[in-house]
Write a structure and sequence with these properties.
Layout: H1 11-20, E1 22-26, E2 29-33, E3 44-49, H2 57-77, E4 88-93, H3 102-115
Parallel strand pairs: 3-4
Antiparallel strand pairs: 1-2, 2-4
């Protein structure tokens, strides 16, 4: 679980991040980056898997847990690249990412963070 200051919670914050239209896609996971930040606050991160991706909440929650754990480990190692320049990040899982294991999801997220 991500520490509390790193969590993106409000619907308005998610909408503002999508509105910027700065995105990257890799391996069934899409990353939306918000506006650049000016102050020294932590980057907030949100994870979304739509009900259209899979009917079962267990499958959706597993994909969210994999993405969240992958980002947490990258944050712990300090290998999040330029992603700390943005105020918010939103990871969106698609149906292509459902059958993947942790190492594949981790590689996709790491690749996107380096690219953005």
């Amino acid at each position: 679980m991500l520490p509390k200051p790193y969590r993106l919670k409000k619907r308005s914050a998610f909408k503002a991040t999508y509105k910027v239209k700065n995105s990257s896609h890799s391996g069934g996971v899409t990353l939306f980056a918000g506006i650049s930040k000016k102050d020294d606050c932590p980057t907030k991160v949100g994870f979304v898997v739509s009900k259209k991706v899979h009917k079962r909440a267990v499958k959706r929650n597993r994909l969210k847990r994999l993405m969240r754990e992958s980002y947490r480990l990258l944050l712990k190692d300090g290998t999040v690249g330029n992603s700390q320049k943005f105020m918010s990040l939103v990871f969106v899982g698609s149906d292509r990412a459902l059958g993947k294991n942790f190492s594949e999801i981790h590689h996709s997220i790491k690749k996107m963070l380096e690219k953005i």
